[in-house]
Design goal:
174 residues; Trefoil (Acidic Fibroblast Growth Factor, subunit A); 2 helices; 12 strands; disordered N terminus
């Protein structure tokens, strides 16, 4: 008779859960934001376009500043091994507080629930001058949050001088 523990996947599953729990201690899931931390993201190229999830998918469009779907909280986090940590953010939506911006396996920009410490949802900010930032995906090399030529919110290569990849973060009026 075979040893049931040796052939069972249960010990492997327990180890994975333990590893995931330990990773959660090192890079915990962002907590919900405090009041007043919510910001809108206005594009520099098309200054009437704001990042939102009003229609379900991530979009850049005109908004009403009262739409919580266009309010984002940048939750500071550290990612990576202790010797090579990178400071960045998880970007949480106000309307659906379990939704964070992330890049899916196909390189598409999405918003939805994430796993603790998910690299696909980790973003770094780079100054673009004049109070604008470039929002860099930690998950994809040289990929930035931008508006493409067709007006869609996407993630992809964006030279530093292209205003389509520049965003201003500010507290919405009212």
């Amino acid at each position: 008779m075979k040893n049931p523990i040796a052939t069972s996947k249960e010990p492997l599953i327990r180890r994975r859960r333990l590893c995931a729990a330990m990773a959660g201690l090192l890079a915990p899931l962002p907590t919900f934001a405090q009041a007043g931390n919510w910001q809108v993201l206005m594009n520099r190229w098309k200054q009437d376009q704001y990042l939102n999830i009003q229609g379900g998918a991530v979009a850049a469009s005109q908004i009403n500043f009262t739409w919580w779907s266009a309010h984002w909280n940048f939750q500071a986090a550290m990612q990576g091994a202790f010797t090579r940590q990178k400071r960045g953010y998880f970007i949480q939506n106000r309307w659906k507080e379990d939704h964070f911006l992330y890049v899916d396996g196909g390189g598409l920009l999405k918003a939805g629930p994430i796993e603790p410490g998910a690299e696909a949802a980790f973003w770094a900010l780079e100054s673009a001058g004049d109070n604008f930032v470039r929002i860099n995906s930690h998950h994809l090399a040289d990929a930035y949050l931008q508006i493409d030529a067709f007006g869609y919110a996407t993630v992809g290569p964006s030279p530093s001088g292209y205003w389509s990849g520049h965003w201003r973060r500010y507290t919405p009026p009212g």
